[in-house]
Design brief:
Layout: H1 25-44, H2 47-65, E1 67-68, E2 71-72, H3 73-88, E3 93-95, E4 121-126, E5 132-138, E6 143-151, H4 160-175, E7 184-195, H5 199-208, H6 215-228, E8 233-244, H7 249-254, H8 258-272, H9 274-279, E9 283-287, H10 290-301, H11 305-315, E10 337-340, E11 345-347, E12 350-359, E13 381-391, H12 393-416, H13 423-440, E14 445-456, H14 462-475, E15 479-482, H15 487-494
Antiparallel strand pairs: 1-2, 3-10, 4-5, 5-6, 6-8, 6-9, 7-8, 7-13, 10-11, 11-12, 12-14, 12-15, 13-14
Helix pairs in contact: 1-2, 5-11, 12-13
Length: 509
């Protein structure tokens, strides 16, 4: 075992996307309106005007600077109004299944997903090795996403030197996409931790017990499986890779254009990254087919389907199996019913609460700091998605220079007005300078976000599961914020490995 000190990591920074300092465009307009109201009585030299104008000015300032559960007051009001409009018009309710519209041409039910997922289509493409690859196509963003089920040896039970080497290999994998001409615009890691129902184990055992096996041995094995199966947990890890057609226009055109050309370029990129994945100690179990991808989506919406699908998939391995193949038809991937509430998302027979990581640890942490988030829980399943957006060198230089300029201008303004500089602001400025130095030395820069979800099938256990997740997040040094008024969007980002969840960079808005 190595006796060296484990490496620590830090330096995460929140994006500054305010219109003026930390104020949004709406907040800045509220401040302007409040100042106009305060100046009006002075210009009119009227006490009557002061009594009329000062109260609404105070309200505008409170809306601009007030905070409600991590959101500014104006953002909170906009979310609440939008949610109430959706509730009044019943746009927060989704019904599929027998209620899904059928195609006018084929008469079949198309793939029907709720909310922000409604625009997605699951395509089938050859993977170049004789099998088929499932591709999630977003026609609005013009992107194509492939999803792989992967395994990773982990970091917990190895020495610090190997931990550092594996983390550095993963960083090198991400840095390989931080180029100006890379068509890969998003990479996401998704892990879900769910109770093991033992269906696959029972099915395998039933098929391998011989007819003349001793009854005592069979009874003991059955008792062992009944006790150990529900106490175990399953961890599923997925890697999604998203290709942007606008950034790969020439390559797509050279491959035949359209969806066929885009899928061909995506498959070529997947083959090219195979060695980099191996260097990062990631083993690709399989690139999901359309039916396997649909099953991952289906079991997230309907956890009760996990038992049936696991049993059927295990039985389908038998050579004499005559039933349906493994997985789910893409048109059946979505829920039969879903409803978005202010703080929860109900889908089929389950309830989910989603959180966004709003602040990463301020101090340096070890590579295993996220382990508490996916502790096995018998009353709930947890999902974690970390989405990365590699940034090219030119844009990274511009973005970091813009961030430094904002911080420096804010510091100079506080100095002129006689305000003291807080330790947090000084630390952020130091991180910005260190990040720019690392970029100049050849390191890559990525945007990232992390979204978590906790899902239960018993509504009475939901708040307990949420409290446990927040406690584990605090142990990891993370600050979570419940995605009030956007739980359906949070579910799509946190509970599904489709590379959702990272918005476009907002500049000056």
């Amino acid at each position: 075992m190595s006796s060296s000190t484990p490496a620590s990591y830090g330096g995460w920074q929140s994006e500054r996307s305010g219109f003026m300092g930390r104020l949004s465009g709406v907040g800045f307009a509220l401040i302007v309106g409040g100042c106009v109201l305060l100046l009006t009585p002075i210009n009119l030299s009227s006490w009557t005007a002061a009594f009329v104008c000062v109260p609404p000015a105070a309200v505008l300032f409170a809306l601009a600077f007030g905070r409600v559960l991590g959101l500014s007051a104006d953002e909170w009001i906009l979310l609440a109004v939008r949610h109430q409009i959706n509730v009044a018009t019943r746009r927060n309710i989704f019904q599929s299944g027998a209620f899904a519209p059928r195609s006018k041409t084929s008469g079949q039910q198309p793939m029907d997903l709720p909310g922000v997922l409604a625009r997605l289509r699951f395509l089938e493409a050859p993977d170049g090795l004789g099998d088929t690859l499932g591709v999630s196509h977003d026609p609005v963003a013009n992107t194509y996403t492939a999803v792989a089920r992967i395994t990773f040896p982990g970091l917990a039970l190895i020495d610090s030197d190997r931990q550092t080497a594996r983390v550095a290999a993963w960083a090198g994998f991400l840095r390989g996409f931080c180029t100006e001409d890379s068509p890969i615009v998003r990479i996401a890691v998704h892990q879900r931790c769910l109770p093991d129902d033992g269906a696959a184990l029972r099915s395998w055992t039933d098929r391998h017990i011989v007819a003349d096996a001793p009854k005592e041995a069979v009874a003991a094995l059955t008792e062992l499986m009944e006790g150990a199966g529900p106490a175990a947990t399953i961890r599923e890890t997925y890697l999604s890779v998203t290709l942007s057609v606008p950034k790969a226009r020439l390559a797509v055109k050279g491959a035949g254009g359209g969806q066929v050309g885009a899928a061909a370029v995506l498959v070529r990129e997947l083959h090219a990254m195979h060695s980099s994945l191996s260097s990062a100690s990631l083993q690709v179990v399989e690139w999901l087919s359309p039916r396997a991808l649909a099953q991952v989506v289906r079991t997230a919406f309907d956890p009760e389907a996990q038992l049936m699908l696991a049993t059927r998939n295990a039985a389908a391995q038998a050579p004499d199996w005559q039933g349906l193949g493994p997985g789910v038809a893409p048109e059946l991937a979505g829920p039969a019913h879903a409803e978005t509430d202010w703080g929860t998302y109900r889908h089929d027979g389950a309830w989910t609460v989603s959180y966004q990581v709003r602040a990463w640890p301020q101090a340096d942490v070890y590579a295993t700091f996220l382990q508490p988030l996916l502790r096995p829980r018998q009353n709930a399943r947890r999902s974690l998605s970390i989405v990365y957006e590699p940034i090219g060198p030119r844009r990274a230089r511009q973005d970091l220079a813009r961030e430094k300029a904002k911080r420096e201008s804010a510091r100079k303004l506080r100095a002129k007005t006689g305000q003291d500089e807080s330790a947090d602001e000084l630390l952020e400025a130091q991180k910005a300078r260190a990040q720019d130095v690392a970029r100049a030395s050849g390191q890559g820069v990525v945007r990232l976000t992390a979204v978590l979800a906790v899902t239960v099938t018993d509504l009475g256990e939901l708040e307990t599961a949420c409290a446990e997740l927040q406690a584990d997040a605090a142990a990891s040094g993370l600050e979570l914020r419940r995605m009030w008024g956007a739980q359906d969007v949070g579910f799509a980002a946190a509970a599904l490995p489709l590379g959702q969840g990272l918005p476009d960079r907002r500049i000056g808005f």
